[in-house]
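Human: Not sure, check this?
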Amino acid sequence: MLTDIRRIIARSPQTLAEDALGCAAILVTLLVALHLPGFV
């Protein structure tokens, strides 16, 4: 399984970085949305 993960990372490092950035953006959006009612 580790060799499969290493192959995937080696084949598409830019896609992996874009996916990580997308996950971070979704997490930030979720945190902002959850704290928004406290500001109003």
